[in-house]
Amino acid sequence: MGWRRGEEREEGVMAADFFWSYTDEPHASRRRQILSQYPQIKELFGPDPWAFPKVTVVVLLQLYTATLLHDAGWLKILATAYFFGSFLNHNLFLAIHELSHNLAFSTPAYNRWLGILANLPVGVPMSVTFQKYHLEHHRFQGVDGIDMDIPSLTETRMVTNVVAKSIWVIFQLLFYAFRPVFLKPKPPGYWEFINFSIQIALDITIVYFWGWKSFAYLILSTFVGGGMHPMAGHFISEHYVFNPDQETYSYYGPLNFLTWHVGYHNEHHDFPRIPGNKLHKVREVAPEYYQGLASYKSWSQNFGFVLPFVL
Q1: What mean pLDDT is predicted for residues 225-231?
Q2: What is the DSSP code string of 124-175?
Q3: Is the pLDDT of residue 229 over 70?
Q4: d(CA 96, CA 127)
Q5: Could you tell me if 266 and 290 are in contact, meaning their C-beta atoms sit under 8 angstroms apart?
Q6: Whose CA is closest to 227, among 54, 129, 89, 98?
Q7: Is residue 19 within 8 Å of residue 2, measured between CB atoms?
Q8: Contact criterion met (CB below 8 Å) for 258 and 231
Q9: Pick from 278, 275, 272, 224: nearest CA to 248
Q10: Closest C-alpha to 236, from 257, 268, 262
Q11: Which one of 6, 72, 132, 282 has the largest count of C-beta atoms within 10 Å of its C-beta?
């Protein structure tokens, strides 16, 4: 289950689907408190100068790997996708998350272009659309009908046992992608047309010169990396409630170095203008605001522990 915000409901109505709250989300108030006590944190605001080279290296490495697998057997392709390519594509997905907050360049358009570059090995155009919905997740965390990062009421009613939840976890990236399409569709804009055109052109180029297996490797890397995969544990750990008094959870483990430090999720929601590589400094400067919060030390362990309870 996750937190939801909405209008007051009759007593007992919808009490078992989410933790319903009618108060403001906690991050804005905590941000004000921290900044009033530690104004030097504002010095951490601003872009990460290493974002562009980091994205470029991962994109080139993943595309090169795809070309090497053009004649490989399907078992080798699947194994490489799960144990190698999934880490790269998930890294790029979280780079896109970072870029949605304009944390690579001061000029928003440059961040969009880099997001389109980071999108290429993912195989499906999504970087521009992701920004539209993700910024709403920050502004309206948990607000019913607006925040598309939280599972829908239909999902909570359909996914009610271990088997269904296992299937949901395996396909959670698809639920994440299609939930806003069905529940809160937005008309595409100019930047989405650019994102779509460049992505499809790259996909066609890969198929034409290296064949379907190279393209399949990229798609599999995206799919398996978003399912029952160690890095995909962050989807569950970030906002699924296991402590009724807490909405957002951080993870302080080594996978942060592969995921743009998205594990520092309380810190990120408190200060979305601070790039991931500096979020640990927030906790160092203002430790008293975070040490008392529940957190995770493992994402992969999440699946074994939370699967019977998630949703």
Answers
A1: 90
A2: S--HHHHHHHHHHHHHTTTBTTT-TTSPPHHHHHH--SHHHHHHHHHTHHHH
A3: yes
A4: 6
A5: yes
A6: 89
A7: yes
A8: yes
A9: 272
A10: 262
A11: 282
Determine contact, residues 150/2, Cβ cutoff 8 Å. yes
β-pair partners for 251: 296
pLDDT above 90: residue 286: yes
Enumerate the domain spans of the chain: 3-306
Q: How far apart are CA 78 and CA 74, in angstroms?
A: 6
Helix and strand numbers, DSSP H then E, in the chain: 15, 4
Residue where the block lists tokens 């008309």: 187
Residues 150 and 239 sit within 8 Å (Cβ to Cβ): yes
Decide if pLDDT at 311 tops 90: no
The tens digit of pLDDT for each residue in 80-123 reads 999 999 999 999 999 999 999 999 999 999 999 999 999 999 99
Q: Is the dihedral of CA 225, 178, 234, 108 positive or negative?
A: positive
Distance CA 222, CA 88 (A): 9
pLDDT beyond 80 at 3: no
Which tokens in the block code for residue 215? 């393209």
Greatest alpha-carbon pair distance for the chain in Å reads 62
Looking at residue 176, its pLDDT comes to: 82
